[in-house]
Amino acid sequence: MPSFDIVCDCDMQEMDNAVNQVKKEITTRYDFKHSKASIELADGVIKLTGDDVNNLNTVCEILRAKMVRRKLDAKSLEYGEPENASGDTKRQTLTIKQGIDKELAKKIVKLIKQEKMKVQAAIQGEHVRVTGKKRDDLQAAMALVRQMEVDRPLHFTNFRD
């Protein structure tokens, strides 16, 4: 029976490469000269440090540009509030969204059931498995999920005929 999985995952190797490129750009750019701007990636959390909020926003923009070049979706970042740090600097944490939470999974299953498609959707941990008898029905379900407004990038994996 044909099936596929709906998942939300971010390629952490590509994210690490993007962060390293931002580090390199911070050290070479003139507007960051004599600045305390830095960026670190550890355990799915990106920590930004800068002299002020504008400095943090500039580093965020550079990071988003590097992510787009590496085909990473900018929606996979959850922005924390800038806070005061030691040495008269600002700090901000960006969390990388991984997996589909229970509420979003229920919303996906409910949407598929409301459309009365000839497929079944089931929540399995951090992904949703959709099964059906025909490949065309599965592709229609994919199109339906793509049209959803969600706060994280959704990918379709494990397509089996």
Fourth CATH level, the homologous superfamily of the largest domain: YajQ-like, domain 2
So what's the CATH class of the largest domain? Answer: Alpha Beta
Order of helices and strands: EHEEHEEEHEEHE
In what range is the share of β-strand residues? 25-35%
Structural class: alpha+beta
Mean pLDDT: 89
Q: Give the overall shape, derived from the CA principal axes.
A: elongated
Number of helices: 4
Helix content: 25-40%
Number of β-strand runs: 9
Query: Could you give a short account of the major beta sheet?
Result: 5 strands, antiparallel
List the uncertain runs.
none
Say what the CATH topology of the largest domain is: Alpha-Beta Plaits
What would CATH call the architecture of the largest domain?
Answer: 2-Layer Sandwich
Give the SSE layout.
Blueprint: E1 3-7, H1 12-28, E2 38-42, E3 45-50, H2 53-69, E4 77-79, E5 83-85, E6 89-96, H3 102-114, E7 119-124, E8 127-132, H4 135-146, E9 155-160
Helix pairs in contact: 1-2
Report on this model:
The chain has 161 residues and is α+β, with helices and mostly antiparallel strands. It has two domains: 3-8 and 100-160, Alpha-Beta Plaits, CATH 3.30.70; 12-96, Alpha-Beta Plaits (2-Layer Sandwich). Helices cover 37% and strands 30% of the residues. It is built from four helices and nine strands, in the order βαββαβββαββαβ. Strands 2, 3, 4, 5 and 6 form a five-stranded antiparallel β-sheet that branches. It has a four-stranded antiparallel β-sheet with strand order 7-8-1-9. Helix 1 packs across helix 2. The longest helix has 17 residues, at 12-28. It is elongated and about 60 Å long.
